[in-house]
Task: inverse folding
């Protein structure tokens, strides 16, 4: 049995769904952040699998850009979470309820 | 393969890059008191970057580079001009606000310039990768700017909410992009468009999923209902000049990305994205206007107003798409709306910044009698708020006019229903704008005013308010100016 691009696509779809569900059900900012990383990695897998199946380099090149941007976003995100933690001593998004209406 | 670089075409971006480097270096050597020079450099950079745009507009050529991934045509020129003008006005508003605060100045201007750079790249991008880079470069610095007052719990909360939803929308957008790439084999808009007719029925569900995920991603960026819930919280918690930037430039960036993708890559898929945008437009207008009616904080009110305006901007091209008509008129109407909205909304935020210093509060009740002790700012507030409501002869009426004209011209039951919903919402919107005007001019001022109440606004803020007010009145009286910009952009569709 050969493992074709379809298998990778299916795995990527499963990873993306797990990440999306994680975003919806978990309330800790750090865990939500991890879920987003999972979604971004599902994207990378799709790009690579598609690029390989099509025989073009665009997919692989896209992954580089996604990785770099994701790394930059980690920096920004952790900085924000640390700032929140300093004023609140909590990372739960449910307790962030100052702004409403 | 060798690429020739047209230096004039990238001159605006390079100017901003140079400005970023100067601000970064200057910030190291300036003492605390002299930090405002970083702001001066930022303002000069943005003004200088307009020069190559004018030169390119004069010779009327379309410049394409990197295999057609980076294109400077009329559409790009108009939107780059809009981003630079919006950036200029926001910088003017920031000078006073950031100086009076005890937070970092140099870094603030640096991040704002980076965001402007991202939006300039975005306007020229004609492939998915460049589009993604431009969009992230625009929004990335804004996550930090939203949390700029880092000792303030509200500002932290605003930044975290904006960040999590911003990154979530990016993930959805990217997944959509990767599916579209996998099915069409191209990341360039032209290539995607050419490959779409060949896609077989078996692969169609994946294509629909890809297109819809991209629309959802853009929906977050333009804060359309039901992807708007971050907007009011982030707008209220962020520093007010940043809110002004978010509500104008970041929203415009989302629209530019959405417009270039749906018009250049997916024009043959109107049956997929047309109904989706129809729903977004109708929901944004209705939900946001009804929520705005019960707001007590003036910034939250403007936040819901900006969500509602996103709905109005979606109307022309959603209408044209569901009716199956040519899209050029819808594009022209949306771009005209974006130009006018940017000017009047920035003006409204400038007045709110000036007024919040005098009244010392963001609660609308606290603004009672504001017109009696600050008559000039009171008049400007009336100008901008009534323009947002769409009252002639202020610019807002023309934005609404082209919007209705485009959607009615599209014809068909669905488009006409959308026009009806838009008309009802224009009436609802008038109530909450008029309520602020009434509080400011008709309610009695408090017996004892604070010390700040009679303090004049600083020069930079006055300049920002003045420029926006002149633009709003001139465009309102001579609407041909903004229609010219809108029409120029439609040449993009004819390959011109």
Result:
């Amino acid at each position: 049995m050969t493992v074709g691009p379809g298998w990778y696509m299916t795995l990527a779809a499963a990873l993306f769904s797990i990440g999306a569900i994680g975003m919806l059900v978990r309330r800790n900012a750090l865990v939500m952040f991890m879920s987003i990383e999972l979604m971004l990695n599902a994207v990378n897998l799709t790009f690579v699998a598609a690029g390989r199946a099509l025989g073009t380099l665009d997919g692989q090149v896209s992954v580089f850009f996604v990785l770099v941007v994701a790394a930059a976003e980690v920096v920004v995100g952790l900085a924000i979470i640390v700032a929140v933690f300093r004023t609140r001593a909590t990372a739960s998004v449910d307790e962030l309820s100052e702004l409403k209406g | 393969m060798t690429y020739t670089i047209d230096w004039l075409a990238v001159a605006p971006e390079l100017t901003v890059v140079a400005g970023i480097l100067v601000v970064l270096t200057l910030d190291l050597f300036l003492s605390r008191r002299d930090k405002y020079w970083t702001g001066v450099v930022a303002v000069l950079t943005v003004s200088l970057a307009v020069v190559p745009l004018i030169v390119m507009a004069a010779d009327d050529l379309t410049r394409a580079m990197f295999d057609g991934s980076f294109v400077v045509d009329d559409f790009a020129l108009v939107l780059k001009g809009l981003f630079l003008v919006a950036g200029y006005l926001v910088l003017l508003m920031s000078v006073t606000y950031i100086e009076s605060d005890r937070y970092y100045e140099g870094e603030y201007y640096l991040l704002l310039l980076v965001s402007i750079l991202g939006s300039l790249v975005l306007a020229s991008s004609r492939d998915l990768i460049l589009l993604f880079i431009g969009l992230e470069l625009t929004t990335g610095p804004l996550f930090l700017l939203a949390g700029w007052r880092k000792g303030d719990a509200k500002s932290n909360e605003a930044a975290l909410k904006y960040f999590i939803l911003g990154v979530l929308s990016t993930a959805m957008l990217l997944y959509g992009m990767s599916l579209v790439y996998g099915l069409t084999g191209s990341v360039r808009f032209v290539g995607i468009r050419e490959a779409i007719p060949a896609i077989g029925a078996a692969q169609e569900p994946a294509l629909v999923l890809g297109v819809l995920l991209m629309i959802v991603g853009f929906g977050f960026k333009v804060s359309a209902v039901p992807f708007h819930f971050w907007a009011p919280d982030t707008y209220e918690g962020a520093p007010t000049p940043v809110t002004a930037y978010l509500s104008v430039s970041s929203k415009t960036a989302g629209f530019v990305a959405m417009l270039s993708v749906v018009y250049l890559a997916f024009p043959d898929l109107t049956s997929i994205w047309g109904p989706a945008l129809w729903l977004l437009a109708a929901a944004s207008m209705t939900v946001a206007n009804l929520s705005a009616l019960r707001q007590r904080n003036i910034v939250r009110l403007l936040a819901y107003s900006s969500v509602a305006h996103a709905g109005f901007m979606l109307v022309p091209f959603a209408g044209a798409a569901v009716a199956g008509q040519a899209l050029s008129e819808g594009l022209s109407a949306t771009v005209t709306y974006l130009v006018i909205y940017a000017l009047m909304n920035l003006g409204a935020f400038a007045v709110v910044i000036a007024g919040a210093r005098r009244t010392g509060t963001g609660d609308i009740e606290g603004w009672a009698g504001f017109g009696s002790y600050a008559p000039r700012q009171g008049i400007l507030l009336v100008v901008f708020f009534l323009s947002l409501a769409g009252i002639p002869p202020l610019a807002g009426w023309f934005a609404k006019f082209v919007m209705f004209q485009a959607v009615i011209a599209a014809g068909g039951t669905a488009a006409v229903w959308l026009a009806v919903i838009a008309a009802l919402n224009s009436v609802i919107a008038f109530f909450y704008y008029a309520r602020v005007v009434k509080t400011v001019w008709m309610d009695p001022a408090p017996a004892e005013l604070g010390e700040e109440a009679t303090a004049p606004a600083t020069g930079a803020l006055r300049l920002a308010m003045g420029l926006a007010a002149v633009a709003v009145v001139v465009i309102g009286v001579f609407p041909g100016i903004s229609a010219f910009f809108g029409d120029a952009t439609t040449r993009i569709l004819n390959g011109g």
Residues 58-88 of chain A form the longest helix (31 residues).
